[in-house]
Amino acid sequence: MKKTLLAVAALCVLSSGAALAQQAEGPWMVRARVVNLDSANKDSTPLGLTVNDKTIPEVDITYFFNKNIAAELILTVPQKHTLRAGGAAIGTLKHLPPTLTVQYHFDVAGFKPYVGAGLNYTRFSGVHLPAGVDIDRNSFGPALQAGVDIPLSKNLYLNFDVKKVYIKTDVSAGGAKLGTFKVDPVLVGVGLGWRF
Questions:
Q1: For the purposes of burial, counting CB atoms within 10 Å of the CB of 127, is it exposed (0-12), middle (13-18) or buried (19 or more)?
Q2: Rounded to 5 degrees, what angle do the CA atoms 19, 158, 113 make?
Q3: Which of 2.60.120.10, 3.40.50.10490, 2.40.30.10, 2.40.160.20 would CATH assign to domain 26-195?
Q4: Which residues of 23-48 are buried (b: 16+ CB within 10 A; e: fewer)?
Q5: Domain range list for the chain
Q6: pTM to 2 decimals?
Q7: Is 191 strand, coil or helix?
Q8: How many helices (H) and strands (E) does the chain have?
Q9: What is residue 111's DSSP assignment?
Q10: Minimal CA–CA distance to 193: which of 143, 149, 133, 130?
Q11: Rounded alpha-carbon distances, angstroms, from residue 113 to 107, 171, 192
Q12: Which of 6, 151, 187, 196 is 20–30 Å from 171 (CA)?
């Protein structure tokens, strides 16, 4: 009986300690990442359009509904790209691609891998193209995500993240649609996260 009581007491202490540790983390997490944007450059127009790849800053805000389910808002600043046709630069544009994903987080030997899916909205602005050539300014598309948070110290994590985001725009010349240009980038990022 005494051993049983001790075991129950020990279990209660461990459970309360785990609960306090989880409570201490809090439901919010903010990450800052450096991300490499690698464009798919799929073009159905006769122009052979491409945009340049680049490294961009990224910040995300995550809210944990419980230890497994979270929602993440992914943000950056407007990114300027050179638009090329057949390899020759024909103009520039900026895109702002906020993305919202819902994630499932695992806990594997202290590591915290996750997968996510959601919606991207991209707004094209600062479009400078030859006279008569234009693009649709808005894009909606799905986004897929996988990553891992690796604990470094209390509430501080090293983050690795990969996303596939579907971004496209209709291209027109003289008011007639030429086709669709799909950027559809893969974004590979590394950064730090703070849970509070």
A1: middle
A2: 65
A3: 2.40.160.20
A4: eeeeeebebebebebebbbebebebe
A5: 26-195
A6: 0.84
A7: strand
A8: 1, 15
A9: B
A10: 149
A11: 7, 39, 14
A12: 187
Tokens of 25: 């983390």
As a whole number of angstroms, the distance between CA 71 and CA 23 comes to 18
- Chunked in runs of 10, what are the mean pLDDT values of the chain (196 residues)? 41 37 76 98 95 97 97 97 96 97 94 97 97 96 98 96 98 95 97 98
How far apart CA 142 and CA 99 sit, in angstroms, is 9
Task: Please report which helix (H) or strand (E) contains residue 21, including its range.
Answer: helix 2-25
Which tokens hold the place of 150?
A: 């690796």
